[in-house]
């Protein structure tokens, strides 16, 4: 990873607590699915998945969840808001679309995101669309409530023009929600009961990633064909002994 100066284009509040940040960089390349580090004046380095695809350069898009005013994420947003340019380190991560999985010709590529894990999966999804990928791609995005959905403009465009499937699933639905509800893995397995010839990218919290992986492995998904940044920094919790 190298240090790069990025110009701040915009900081926009997408819903009650998710910000979309757009940056401009020069002389930079990355693979869909990689991340960058925001360098704070305190010396802290905070990782965020790149939410845009390589063909959108020189623009980079980030999605930042601020759940608490005292959080590190809030420090990141306030730093970017008050700056014309920031320092980033990039690119990082080996959970990306150029990792060789496409050469294995999976029957289906499952792109599974929880919350702002959407950023990484959106980058991969958009890249495959741009590359006119002819395989089967299914994007599943899980959120807690309908109020947590963001990036509606992108979702509407993707539904219109993509050849791939795209589903938003909420845990706690209400009368105004007309989409799918329940657990994320349940939606995946309802559509793909046999995962023995599938590959998956999973992005989200440690608990979400491993909880989803356990369910999908039980239906045939090979760990060797499953990719997540979580694998690099958080070991799989021990499964309870029966």
Walk me through the structure.
The structure is a single chain. By secondary structure, this protein is α/β, with parallel strands linked by helices. It has 2 domains: 2-92, Elongation Factor Tu (Ef-tu), domain 3; 101-233, Rossmann fold (3-Layer(aba) Sandwich), CATH 3.40.50.80. The chain is 24% helix and 31% strand. A 6-stranded antiparallel β-sheet has the order 4-3-6-1-2-5. A 6-stranded parallel β-sheet has the order 10-9-8-7-11-12, sandwiched between helices. α3 links the parallel β8 (136-143) and β9. The protein is globular, with a radius of gyration of 18 Å. The model has no long low-confidence stretch (mean pLDDT 93).
Topology, element by element:
Layout: E1 2-13, E2 18-24, E3 35-39, E4 45-49, E5 59-65, H1 72-81, E6 85-92, E7 108-114, H2 118-130, E8 136-143, H3 152-161, E9 165-170, E10 180-181, H4 184-191, E11 198-203, H5 206-217, E12 226-227, H6 230-233
Parallel strand pairs: 7-8, 7-11, 8-9, 9-10, 11-12
Antiparallel strand pairs: 1-2, 1-6, 2-5, 3-4, 3-6
Secondary structure class reads alpha/beta
Query: Approximately how much helix is present in the residues?
Result: 10-25%
Name the CATH superfamily classification of the largest domain.
Nucleotide-binding domain of ferredoxin-NADP reductase (FNR) module
Q: At the third CATH level, what is the topology name of the largest domain? A: Rossmann fold
Mean pLDDT: 93
Q: How many beta-strand segments?
A: 12
Keywords: Luminescence, Oxidoreductase
Organism: Marinomonas pontica
Pfam families: NAD_binding_1
InterPro entries: FAD-bd_FR_type, FNR_nucleotide-bd, MRET, OxRdtase_FAD/NAD-bd, Riboflavin_synthase-like_b-brl
